[in-house]
Amino acid sequence: MAAEVDERGRTPAVVIDESHLLDHQELDAIRMLTNYDMDSTTPFAVLLIGQPTLRKRMKHGVLAALDQRISISYQMPTMTKEETASYIKHHLTIAGRQDTLFSDDAVELIHLTSRGLPRSVNNIAWQSLIAAFTEEKGIVDESSTRTAITETHATE
After folding, report:
1. Residue 18 pLDDT greater than 90, yes or no
2. Rounded to an integer, what distance in angstroms lies between the CA atom of residue 11 and that of residue 34?
3. Rounded CA gap, 129 and 144, in Å?
4. What single DSSP character describes residue 102?
5. CA distances in angstroms from 79 to 13, 18, 131, listed in the order given
6. Which helix (H) or strand (E) holds 111?
7. Residue 130 and residue 120: Cα distance in Å, rounded?
8. Residue from 52, 124, 41, 53 nearest 84 by CA
């Protein structure tokens, strides 16, 4: 990787998705890889992408050396109620649906329950669609969403 920087002037990037699933030894191995040339140069960039639990784990003393090597940290903010509504509408548009499929009160309940976290919005909206279908409803209403929430949170 150092040769890539020296010969081509490009910094390679290593992207690790779901990095919150890495154990301490794996994170320590990343630290060792970033300890190239006693920190005087950085032959590659590492992107650790994961759930908020990763940030909490990195703050533990045993991972302090790796945490100190992080020059940029970003946490995706949660969505507002308006952003959640727009997010759901956007996904429905991509799926080819132009008319209203979720009532305003259903969208509000999805937002409140998901706390604006996109993956949780997806899960609750999907389960709400299934609940509305099984109830033979043409639109996802608050009742269908409550059923979906009961189903999705009963398994957690």
Report:
1. yes
2. 13
3. 8
4. B
5. 29, 21, 24
6. helix 104-114
7. 15
8. 124
- What is the predicted pLDDT for the residue at 78? 92
Digit-coded pLDDT (tens) for 41-100: 667 788 999 888 888 888 877 888 888 888 888 888 899 999 999 999 999 999 999 899
DSSP 62: G
Q: Judge whether 142 and 103 are in contact, CB under 8 Å.
A: yes
Contact 110, 122 (CB under 8 A): no
Specify the amino acid at residue 118. P
Give the sign of the dihedral formed by CA 117, CA 45, CA 60, CA 29.
positive
Cβ partners under 8 Å of residue 42, min gap 6: 11, 34, 36
Only one residue has tokens 């940290």, namely 73
Query: For 10-39, what is the mean pLDDT?
Result: 83
Tokens of 111: 């937002």
Q: Per DSSP, what are the bridge partners of residue 46?
A: 14
- For the chain, what is the radius of gyration of the CA atoms? 22
